[in-house]
Design a protein that fits this description.
The chain is α/β, with parallel strands linked by helices. The protein has 15 helices and 24 strands. The strands form 6 sheets. Strands 22-23-1-24 form a 4-stranded mixed sheet. Strands 2-15-17-16 form a 4-stranded mixed sheet. A 4-stranded mixed sheet has the order 4-5-3-14, covered by helices on one side. It is globular and about 65 Å long.
Length: about 450
């Protein structure tokens, strides 16, 4: 049954919160596990809808997968693969599953993977993926909504990416592990999740250096050189940044544990400019607090180590109640301001001008009925609802469930007044009437 959040806002968030494993990292580790004709074990795996989709993708290829949500671990045994086709029904649900293309091509020298789906946040082309895999020796065609790739063998080469695409960097890295010779990825993505993938590939017996810089070198190894491993994924910097945004927006105080502060350096810099107090307690914990005044700041989303596009939406909600005028420039995706309409319903003053959003701070937001249009827009609405006066109803929670583990429980632990309730027939009828009025 569909559900919604009921949030009574205006309460300062206080307390401690533990951050889960990184969604954007663990999904790629799961895909890379297909390279190994044996079993491997991944720890610190969040309980998320996206992880479950990837489990189904791997099982559809013949891998045995044991997903223990209580222990936060997953065991993947890809000793025997029975298929090289990742079907549309699964891949269309989540873009990250497209990474199985590089793994299947590397191990099986062939793959048939549906064109990816996921959030509708703008153009996310796959031409960089194809260019890199073709440079390694694959013959690729797109037919019937599928990418069909074959190769007699993969041979190391130099691949230059016109922009530092995270997905393309990952697919090329994974495929190149079993290529002959060395592969160099120039202008590679530098995100922490790329480093985590490289560390995992090395733990399997691969030879990857340079991850975290603009040039990654992969020295190909033989299949027999790969071996089982037990690996723990990194914490989720985007989840951490979202809860930090919520604490600041409510003028609260909290301790964020199980994070790598260095992964949030650009965010911490902006928080300081906004007037928040940041105290690094130890290598894995920070304390954050904020007084009554939040200063307006300008934000430009950029590839890592710049300000992450995934945190643009929740930080817009913070700036919506800041003092002064902020300008947010979205340089990664052209359709990532989908939260603006819903924030406006809550009293925010935000105007979009192309890839820029002009945010004029207001004294307070007001609770309203709003809908999550994508994962990070949903996070934005959560932050807005927590600092708003009155009650906010957020629907289409499946978007939020894709990326935030036990979000209601974690926010409740910080003192938020939040409930998750079933959507009734009356709710559905009211929405239909509202839609009809809107159309008229």
């Amino acid at each position: 049954m569909d559900q919604k959040f009921l949030i009574n806002g205006g309460k300062k968030l206080k307390g401690e919160i533990n951050i889960s494993g990184a969604k954007n990292a663990v999904l790629k580790l799961m895909a890379a596990a297909l390279l190994l004709d044996d079993a491997c074990e991944i720890h610190n795996v969040p309980e998320l809808a996206d992880v479950q989709i990837m489990v189904e993708v791997l099982r559809s290829l013949g891998a045995k997968v044991d997903y223990d949500t209580d222990e936060k671990k997953i065991i993947i045994d890809a000793t025997t693969l029975t298929s090289v086709e990742a079907c549309y029904e699964l891949v269309s649900k989540m873009r990250a599953s497209f990474t199985v293309l590089g793994a299947l091509l590397g191990r099986c020298k062939e793959a048939k993977v549906a064109l990816p789906g996921g959030c509708s946040i703008g153009e996310r082309r796959i031409d960089f993926h194809i260019k890199g895999l073709e440079a390694l020796g694959a013959q690729i065609k797109i037919e019937g909504g599928y990418v069909i790739a074959k190769a007699k063998k993969l041979v190391g080469t130099t691949v230059y990416l016109d922009r530092p695409s995270v997905g393309a960097t990952e697919n090329i890295m994974i495929a190149a592990i079993l290529a002959e010779g060395s592969t160099i990825i120039s202008n590679a993505a530098q995100e922490p999740e790329i480093v985590d993938l490289a560390n995992f590939l090395n733990a399997l017996g691969g030879d990857v250096t340079g991850a975290g810089t603009s040039e990654i070198i992969i020295n190909g190894v033989k299949q027999k050189d790969l071996h089982p491993t037990i690996y723990t994924t990194i914490p989720d910097r985007i989840e951490a940044g979202t809860y930090i945004a919520a604490i600041v927006a409510t003028r609260g105080k909290g301790i964020i544990r199980n994070i790598f502060p260095s992964h949030l350096s650009a965010v911490i810099s902006k928080l300081t400019d906004m007037g928040a107090n940041i105290n690094i307690l130890d290598p894995f914990s920070i304390e954050i607090s904020c007084g009554k005044i939040i200063n307006a700041v300008n934000i430009v989303t950029q590839p890592h180590p710049g300000f992450p596009t995934d945190l643009q939406s929740p930080f817009m909600s913070v700036l919506a109640v800041a003092e002064g005028i902020s300008v947010i420039t979205e340089s990664i995706y052209e359709n990532r301001f989908r939260q603006i309409g819903e924030l406006t319903r809550m009293g925010a003053n935000v105007q979009q001008e192309g890839n820029r959003a002009i945010v004029k701070g207001v004294k307070s937001l007001t609770g309203a009925q709003v809908r999550a249009s994508d994962l990070r827009a949903g996070a934005s609405l959560l932050v807005a609802a927590l600092c708003a006066e009155g009650t906010t109803e957020i629907t289409d929670l499946y978007h939020i469930d894709r990326g935030y583990e036990k979000v209601m429980e974690k926010l409740s632990g910080l003192g938020a007044d939040i409930q998750r309730v079933n959507i009734t027939e009356n709710d559905i009828n009211a929405k239909l009437i509202a839609d009809e009025i809107h159309v008229i």
